[in-house]
Amino acid sequence: MDDEEDVLHILEMNLKRLQFEVISTNDPLKAVEIYSQNQNRIDLVMIDSWMPGMNGIQLLQSLKQENANVRAMLCTGDLGQESIQSIKAKGFHGHLPKPFTIDELTQQLTYSLTE
Prior knowledge:
alpha/beta
């Protein structure tokens, strides 16, 4: 989930290169709908921190209403005042900084899926 089409396309392309099946959207409300209908197929949700109408924390809270055990990674260029520990306390399983390399993506996916 990312509201920037270019970022979404790059993530999708790299995830497919790593052999992941990808369901993507640039709309946070659509993301909740997609998750609700496909949560048994989704191992990890990648969430942008800032989107029109809803931030990443709000989106994660909406997903947690569908499944309290949802695995999510926060993707952001700037954590602002947040620390890695505080985003984990909010329910995220990892953090992918933007911009990222394929190695950073792979490392964070591994961490977020196994933590």
